[in-house]
Amino acid sequence: MSIYVRRPGLFTTVQDTGRWGHQRFGMPVAGAMDGFSYRLGNCLVGNKPPLASLEITLTGPELEFQARCVCAITGADFEVHIDGVEIAPNRRFVVRSGQHMWFGGLRSGARAYLAISGGFDVPLVLGSRSTHVASGIGGVDGRALRAGDLLKQGRMPDSVLPRVKSVPPRVKLPKGGSEVRVLAGPDSQFFDSVSAKGFVQSRYRITEESDRMGYRLAGEPVPPSDSANMISTAVPVGSVQVPADGLPIVLMADHQTTGGYPRIATVISADLPILGQLKVSDWIEFKFCKRSEAIEGLVAQERTLMAAGD
Amino acid sequence: MAANLQVKGLPDGWTLSYIGDCAIAAECEQEISPELNNQVMAVARRIRHRECPGIRDVVEGYCGVTVYFDPLRVDIALIISNLRLEIVRGCEPHNCSSDGRLVRVPVCYGGIYGPDLRDVAGVAECTEAEVIERHTAVIYRVYMLGFLPGFAYMGSVTPSIAVSRRQTPRLSVPVGSVGIAGRQTGVYPSTGPGGWQLIGRTPVMVIDLGRPMAFAFHPGDKVQFEAVSSEVFDDLSTAV
């Protein structure tokens, strides 16, 4: 019933939909950086609701399966072999006991998800299995995987796996960068027209000081007007905060629950998965959109998931 | 483009605004005051009890409540009307009396436990004993949690010892350290970097996920620090 980690990869963590309901205690939500690919993988292996998967970052692991396992790999496009035979992403496949799964080169995107039927069985912490490395909570001992870890597979559902109604369309993966849609504010009053214009006309780069907590961007500074007296408040994922130096920071899945910098914009939920597929030195261009477009984007993603058996 | 929602009948000073497509913030005047924070707590408590479908989280801050939701499963109009109703109610004086618990926190001040106590006394131009006296004399209010899981922003420290953050933050502040940053005070829930002036340490774990009550401090709680000797600190440390 186990999966042995021969090689952990660069940064592989257990993630699910996140640890909701405890932000009032300062507990970050965490969860999959590309929530769409995470859910797609779970649909494909018949986990309903979605269960814990592995989030695989830039360099993948090498795993030895000690039990038969129904799997799917979604998100970033890696070369993946099972006992030397390459397998295709975004579809269900079976790995038999004794087989090896090997992740090779990354072709596009940044984060892949390995979903297994029954999910990865790590202890529930405050209602979630997501790893939050900064506070050492969730997943495998609150950390990224290490060589020698033994991962348990959750109980497989009794029901027959759902028929996949259609092979999902190839998920658009950014290569080198992407446009990202945002809604204005909530702190637009701190940004004059020059800053607001600069924000959407510039091409930003994701700097080295970026991780699951947030992406620090380099490019055209868009400094806020005096905001020294701003009182800290709750901040959602996707918030684009701008400290005094004018360089935006996009809050990602592991972000702190509160912040005190003015927020020029907020990334729409439908584009958070794209952000999750970007990596250091990739570019980002922000584009304001309408609220209705934000919702339409989410509806379109739901349709894809339903077609995949959700 | 404006994220502000036009809602009729809101009490003076309150606004509702969207934050992206999955949160609405209800905010009062941007001012740190126990009265306003009481109203915030009352609104949050009532919204939480209403259990609207699609709500993921309700988070209190110094001056507002943020409601997180799943945009495809929520009835936004219902959330807005509930928020309006609860803000009106929360602003009625008899509804916003603080019902926070009183949490007592034993602290061993100074020495290895409070390496900045001497500096704080120096800046405040008083003795270390007087800093301890002034820090324990006030019953603090938990205005908000954030920064780290379980980290409570408490206020307000009496102005005479309200020393600002250290110039250079420490790379490692021990778990349980009690610090001052201006008029705020707080307890570090875990060992890690931090810039507050450390005046003491508590043996009480402010976060313990194995406990039924995982977090020692809740938004709206009252907190009183009590000075204990290093012997008592050691006894309590081995007890927990």
Distance between the termini of chain B: 53 Å
CATH superfamily of the largest domain in chain B: Cyclophilin-like
Unreliable runs of chain A? none
How many distinct domains of chain A? 2
Question: What keywords describe this structure?
Answer:
heterodimer, A: alpha+beta, Cyclophilin, 9-stranded antiparallel sheet, 7-stranded mixed barrel, 18 strands, B: 240 residues, alpha+beta, Gyrase A, domain 2, 5 helices, 25% helix
Would you kindly provide a written description of the structure presented here, covering whatever features stand out?
Chain A has 310 residues and is an alpha+beta fold. Chain A folds into 2 domains: 2-152, no CATH class; 177-307, Cyclophilin-like (Cyclophilin), CATH 2.40.100.10. In chain A, 14% of the residues lie in helices and 31% in strands. In chain A, helix 1 runs parallel beside helix 4 (291-307). Chain A is elongated, with a radius of gyration of 20 Å. With 240 residues, chain B is α+β, with helices and mostly antiparallel strands. Chain B has 2 domains: 4-95, Gyrase A, domain 2 (2-Layer Sandwich), CATH 3.30.1360.40; 102-239, Beta Barrel (Cyclophilin). Helices cover 25% and strands 28% of the residues of chain B. In chain B, the strands form 3 sheets. Chain B has a 7-stranded mixed β-barrel. In chain B, a hairpin with a 6-residue loop joins strand 7 (140-145) and strand 8. In chain B, helix 1 crosses helix 2. The longest helix of chain B has 17 residues, at 34-50. The relative contact order of chain B is 0.15. The mean pLDDT of chain B is 92. Chains A and B meet through strand 13, strand 17 and helix 4 of A and strand 3, strand 4 and strand 5 of B.
Write the layout of secondary structure elements.
The complex is a heterodimer of chains A (310) and B (240).
Chain A lengths: L1 E6 L3 E5 L19 H11 L7 E5 L4 E4 L3 E14 L2 E2 L5 E4 L4 E17 L33 E3 L24 E8 L8 H9 L2 E3 L7 E5 L14 E2 L4 E3 L7 E3 L6 E2 L3 E5 L4 H5 L6 E6 L2 H17 L3
Parallel strand pairs in A: 10-18
Antiparallel strand pairs in A: 1-4, 1-9, 2-3, 3-8, 4-8, 5-6, 5-7, 5-8, 10-17, 11-12, 11-18, 12-15, 13-16, 14-15, 14-17
Chain B lengths: L3 E2 L9 E4 L4 E5 L6 H17 L4 E6 L3 E6 L6 H15 L11 E8 L7 H8 L3 H10 L2 E6 L6 E4 L14 E4 L3 E5 L2 E4 L4 E3 L2 E5 L20 E6 L2 H10 L1
